[in-house]
Amino acid sequence: MSDTIVTILMPLANESGESRPAKAMRLREDIYVVMGPVPEGETWKFPPGSEVKRKSKIMPNGKEEMVATAP
Length: 71
Known about the structure:
The chain is mostly beta strands. The chain has no helices and five strands. The protein has strands at 5-11, 19-28, 31-34, 51-58, 64-69. It has a five-stranded antiparallel beta sheet, with no helix packed on it. A hairpin with a 7-residue loop joins strand 1 (5-11) and strand 2.
């Protein structure tokens, strides 16, 4: 099933380890395209239009989140 919209955590490009929620649309199994817009003053590691995978990651607060990674 394609064209499913999901929220993923998008790493910021500044290497701070910070990430922000972002929308992505499923293209095919395990591959998503990042949607915009990028908030003013931020630079995402994967800009809108980039293809990414989602990876499960346990965050410092113990919560499991889906994070954008390189395909």
